[in-house]
Amino acid sequence: MIDLSKVYILIPLFNEASVIEQLIKDLSVVFKNIVVVNDGSTDNSLEILEKLDIHLINHPINLGQGSAISTGFSYIYETTAEALITFDADGQHSVKDAKKFAEEILTTDVDVIFGSRFLEHSKNIPLLKRFVLKSAARITNFLSRISLTDTHNGMKAIRRDALYKLSINIDGYAFESELIQCVAKEKLGYSEL
What is the pLDDT of residue 95? Predict the structure, then answer.
């Protein structure tokens, strides 16, 4: 059995009070180290998070998802983690998938594993959304010279050693493309799951 205690979950969060407590409880069954970056939530997310057994980082104001991810990377890099899994706070990812990503990153030689909705389940995505996501992937692949089927999926697994090579300067959602550019520039090994 693979020891997942050295895999940290990183959750950037903004206004997810209705789902975050259950999400953390579900993740805690498998993962011992959960880092939540509360990115200036204006609902009662912070009050809920303060009562949970997690590593909590609070941005007093909303700085954007890219900034929250960057803050989490810096925090986790200073720990004994071997890897991290990025996990969306809205509950759209499954704990089962996070466990699969954690096991994969610990047993393969790649630096980054990108999540993809198109490897097995593309028929579950509405047609217009599928078209937009695939178009974005084509553009990002062309610009970065990387071949991915899904370039804007929030679930990723990253080895700790690769973190210092992944510099994120974009605060908003465009950080996804910046991260892919870093993987290409640094010639990091990657795969999709």
Answer: 96
State residue 62 phi and psi, 5-degree precision.
-70, 120
Of the candidates 179, 170, 130, 174, the one whose C-alpha atom is nearest the C-alpha of residue 150 is: 130
Neighbouring CB atoms inside 10 A of 158's CB total: 29
Low-confidence stretches of the chain (pLDDT beneath 50): none
d(CA 163, CA 77): 7
Q: Is 191 exposed, middle or buried (0-12, 13-18, 19+ CB in 10 A)?
A: middle
**Residues with Cβ < 8 Å from 49, sequence gap 6 or more?**
13, 20, 24, 36, 38, 56
Tokens (6 digits) for 117: 């909705």
**pLDDT tens per residue, range 124-163:** 555 665 555 555 555 555 555 666 666 566 789 999 999 8
H or E stretch covering 89: none
**What is the residue whose two structure tokens read 């890219």?**
66
- Which CA distances in Å does 111 have to 60, 96, 117, 140, 190? 32, 21, 20, 19, 6
pTM listed for this prediction: 0.84
Kindly state the tokens that stand for 113: 């594993």
Q: Are 83 and 163 a contacting pair, CB within 8 Å?
A: no
